[in-house]
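S1.2 Input.
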Amino acid sequence: MPAFEYKLLKTDGKARLGEVHTAHGVIRTPAFMPVGTAATVKGMRPEEVKALGSDIILGNTYHLFLRPGHELIEELGGLHKFMNWPGPILTDSGGYQVFSLADSRKITEEGVTFRSHIDGDKKTLTPENSTEIQRALDATITMAFDECTPYPAEVDVAADSMRMSMRWAKRSRDAFVKREGYGQFGIMQGGMHPHLRKESMEALEKLDFEGYAIGGLAVGEPPEMLAEMTEVCADLMPTDKPRYLMGVGYPSDIIRAVLAGVDMFDCVLPTRNGRNGQGYTSEGLVKIKLKTFERDPSPLDPNCECNTCKNYSKSYLRHLYRADEMLAGMLITHHNIHFYQQLMQTLRQAISDGNLQEVATKLLKKVR
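S1.3 Output.
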């Protein structure tokens, strides 16, 4: 069984080309992780997701805890076998989902008590049981349980929230069962306050996680602030471990974060927006419902080689979308995941070639 290890292959400015070696395979970085919240990347077969260049996908502790239950998944051989994805899986700890349940949750030092969005049952997540659920799922990368600090947050609120997350990080680390090829990532918090981010990172480094994540960004702050804080956070992180920016994002945000030295990303945008008829293309965002595409025989993206673009016209995709056919979402999602993975491959190649800044400048003129 290979050790869990980050290998830095090359740098270009602050950007990093690397590999994360795990029990379930190698993750090429910078990497984009399609979101498979409920043990499925919506609208896609796992074989498709892999064929489009994804090395790793994301699952979600909160959703799988509620349905079908981590015990059932463990009984059936773990999440990889359950969903037919043999590659690496990262599981979100559930902290962000609980954060979004503002009206039906109670946070204490012990953890979070909330009402299930499925049946209203009262449930509890703590650093300990979140970590145990992720072990039962057989997550390759387990995330520490944290509180996502809201935006905006005054410095005192952000400090209290961050310090509780650091106490929870220690409890998550203590509960983590170390296994060859598996890792656990700590999550930096601190709102939009650089001195709190520094304090958070120092606390996490003492716990010696296998990787580190930037949490509490992409929660409503302006894009300029996201870019600025991403760079602040990346500069605080160690160079010998993977750096993961959680919940990001738009192609433009990813490009800027790669320039700042971030290695891993996840976001629901390519799948959610695909189901909503929005295609990310080399020429910008295409909203397929628009009447301008009614008789358009051209592909979604003239510069794309994916199956959707090789075989289907904008006119047909618009028809499917307006007819409420599920194939519309499936085909546009397929294209969007291909687009995101091709973007990551372009960024990796540019770092390898030493011309990332030039490539990024051209990309940022076109992508959203």
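S1.4 Remarks. Residues 123 and 361 are 47 Å apart (CA to CA).
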